[in-house]
Structure formats: C-alpha cells, structure tokens
Amino acid sequence: MSQPAPANLDTVLLFGAGAGQLSYLRAFRARGLRVCAIDRSAEAPGAGEADDLLQVSTHDDAAILGLLREYGLDRRLVAVACPATGWAGVAAARVAAALGLRFASEDAVLDLLDKHRLWRRLREAGLTSRDCRVFAAGDDVDAPLPAVVKPCRLGGTSRGVSHCADAAQLREAVARAAAMSLDGLALAESFLPGPEVKLAGLLQGGRARVAVVAARSFGPGPLGVPIGLAIGPAADAATDPLPLLVDVFERFCAGAGLPDVVFNTDFILAPTGPELIDVDIALGSFRGLMADACDADLAALHARLCLGEPLGDDVHCRRGAAVTYLWCAGSDGRRDALLAAAGAAVDEGRFVPDPGLMQGATVDGPRRVGALHSAGATREAAAGAGRDWLERVQRRLLDGGNPARVVLPA
Fold it and tell me: How far apart are CA 116 and CA 111, in angstroms?
C-alpha cells in the first residue's frame, strides 16, 4: 500500500470485502468517498474495487488500528461501516471508539452477541417473561421444560440451537452448546409457543425505518428444509404484527442505548405477546430479500445512516417476496449435485448459492446450500413459490438417481 496524500475526511472504513459487502462499497464510492476495506483475502470480490485494503481479520481491532495509523488513514476516516455479522461488530466498535467515530459501543454490541447479556437486557426493560439459566460443561443441569438451548457466545450463526422436551435431551444439548460457545457456556431458555417472525430495517433517532416483517416456517427433517422468510403486504392487514413488533424493538433499543444501526431481529408471537429473542446489527442473508422487496436501495440508505444523514419516511414494502433455503447434511460429495439441482429447478425467482458452501467450508450438522428469492402479489404467494421450488429440487435429485445421497423428510 502506498503512503496516502495529506489527511482529508474522505474515507470510509468498511469491515469486509466479500460479495455481501460489494453493494455497500459501491454505495460509498458513488458518493465520491474513498473506501478502505478490511478482509484477510486479497482475492475477495471487493478487494480490487476498494481504494485501500487492510489484509487482516475483521475481528483483529489492534491490527486494524495499527495499519490505519501506519498509513495515515486514521486521519482520513469519516465513518465506520460494518455490514458483516458476528464478532466483527466488536472490532468495529473498538476501532470507532479509539478514533472518535460513530458506531455502537462495545457494550451494546456485546449485549447483542452474548445471549445471556441480551436476556438480562430484555429482563431489565420488562420485555421478556422467559426463564433463563446458564450452564458450563459438566454442570448439573436443571431448567424448566420444554426449553431452547443455545451457545452463549457464538455470533453470526444459528448453530447449536436445540429444542429440548425432556431432561436427557437437555443434558445433551447443554453439553453440545457449551462445547461450541466461545466462552464454554450454554444458555437454556423456557420455550415459548407461537410462530417465529423476523423484523429488519434501519434504526435512526430511536425509530425503526424500512421495517419489514417476515414469517419463518421451519420444515421437518435435516435435509431440504425450507425456511420461508416472506415480506411485503399481508393478505389480512388487520392481523399484521408489524406495528407491535416495531414498538417492542424501539423500547428495547431505548433501554439498551443502541444508536443508529441496521437491525435484523427475531421474535416469537407468544400468546402473552411478542417476545424479542435475538438482535443483530447486520442484515446478513436477509439483506438480499429486503432489497428485492422494498422500494429502496438498502446499501445507499446504510451509507446515509453511517454518515449521520436523515433517511426520510418515504420507503415502504411494495410487494411480496420470500426466500426458501435449501439445506444438506454435509458438503462432502454433495455440493455439485445439490447446486445443479437447485439451479435447474428455478422457475421464477433467483437462486443464490451460500458463500460458505462455495468456499468449501465444512461444519458439523446440517448446513445451507443456498436460497431462492421469489416474488408474488402477497408474501403468502411468494412463500408458496418457494415451496414449489423446493419440491422441484427434490424431484430432480430423486429422478437423477439421487447422486447427492439425499434423505428427504418423511
């Protein structure tokens, strides 16, 4: 990297230069700003488009600060943008605090990433009725059943989450989740009945904007499981939970001191009222669905948010859209057949392979192959198109002699 010109406030620090960060990089560049991207790989899709590349981990705040200061970039930064999920948010908070830039505080980010801290924050705000207990591996496990068990600290992933109906399942789930957690702890929460929904958008001045609601439907079995995230106008507007969910989320943000951020949250619509169960300050895989279904350029809005510019109130969901995820039990010997079947089965919509699978990443248990983004007159119609696609994928795999060794749900 060459030594930059004398300091001007003309550069945005972008965490990540992968495919998911390209739209953000281009949105800042379109405003005439330079972009300094952070990514370990010089082969990342956005590495060549960035004005500067810090080739370090997005989690390594000490290395990031050192390189910024070495090349004089710390004196040029006007904003920090972190569309990456998980623990990159902690590094972004530390870098922003060290340089006096706008971003969520480290404590606020940790309140979201650490599931026990999140529960405590919800309890302090009077926004949860769930019982919550924390266990380490080897502890005597005792929690109200049924329960949901998850790692306390993992960040940016849903791995290790289990529903437990009896004591034996609870012990096994706690041991598994504690082994996966970065702090060796597992969290057991009392199970709440009711449908699960997502709320996503941008928070500015304590108000949730471009907020969209998505009903999540989980299919049976470990393979070929659809998770329908559908957004847009509901068939029955009178039953739309959006206003109530927005109110709960804004109350949580006021108590947590969460500043202007993008958000991606999960709720349970319990009989006693909506319960906020997870919060992220990155849109993750939901980003593409929002962009498809909202009359807005989300990357441009995010750029305005990072720069402290007003978002306005003229953005709304215009139509139905849904994403249906295809899962497999593992990637060995299955990836090519699954991707080929998924792409060939597309009738209406757009199939997007999962970046982790394309990079050859492997994990224990089921993993996502990719997603179909579909559209319809309502969100219900869009979700139905996703289910039809999944059935076509499964038929193609079976008709082709099942080269991916697929075990279909009963």
Answer: 8
Report pLDDT for 184: 93
Two structure tokens written together for 343 = 């792409």
Does 208 reside within a domain? yes
What is the rounded CA–CA span in Å between residue 386 and residue 226? 8
Contact 313, 278 (CB under 8 A): no
Range of 181's domain? Answer: 131-190
Residue 28 near residue 12, CB atoms below 8 Å: yes
Would you say residue 408 lies in a domain?
no
Q: pLDDT of 73-109, one tens digit each?
A: 999 999 999 988 788 999 999 999 999 999 999 999 9
Same domain, yes or no, for 145 and 270? no
What is the rounded CA–CA span in Å between residue 296 and residue 201? 11
Structurally, the chain folds into a number of domains equal to 3
CA distance 230 to 275: 19
139, 173, 190 - which closes a domain: 190
What whole-number distance in Å separates Cα of residue 328 and Cα of residue 365? 9
- The angle that helices 115-124 and 106-113 make with each other, rounded to 10 degrees, is 100
DSSP 363-399: -SS-EEEEEEEEEESSHHHHHHHHHHHHHHHHHHHHH
CATH (domain of 290):
3.30.470.20
Closest CA to 195 of 156, 223, 234: 234
User: How close are the terminal C-alpha atoms of the chain, in Å?
Assistant: 56
Q: Residue 388 falls within a domain, yes or no? A: yes
- 115 three-class SS: helix
Q: Do 297 and 154 fall within a single domain?
A: no
Q: How confident is the model at residue 222 (pLDDT cuts 50, 70, 90)?
A: very low
**Residue 124 is assigned to a structural domain of this protein:** no
Q: In what order do the strands lie in the sheet with 261-270?
A: 273-280, 261-270, 196-204, 207-216, 229-231, 320-328, 367-376, 350-353
Return the CATH number at 97: 3.40.50.20
Give Rg (Cα) of the chain: 21
